Amino acid sequence: MTIRTILAIEAVTCAAMGIGLVAAAHSLTGLLGLPQDLLSAAGWLLLPIAVFMAALAWQAQPWRAGVWVIILGNLAWVIASIAVLFLTTPNALGAGFLAAQALVVALLALAETRAVRNRPLPA
Fold this sequence. Notes:
Blueprint: H1 3-32, H2 36-58, H3 64-87, H4 92-118
């Protein structure tokens, strides 16, 4: 899979998650046992990130530094998700949600790293 394809997939999933978190933060609070402000803020944070990912995916040769920003940002998201798991009191569904989305983001970061290493990008 090419880096452009991975970035496009991630842009779509990031936008969907952002919209979902913003639109349903109040409902998800009760369902997941996570603070509404945290869910809403995470959703709003994801929206411009999704636009950045889409812009990179749209380029014929994605900007290398931009791709590394996404990879490092994904790793930061995984770490933050683990921190939220331990610093808040999610219910079992909330803990599963945090773990699942952290795993998906980690796998995307791994796929992006492999794609960049297999086919280096221009500076």
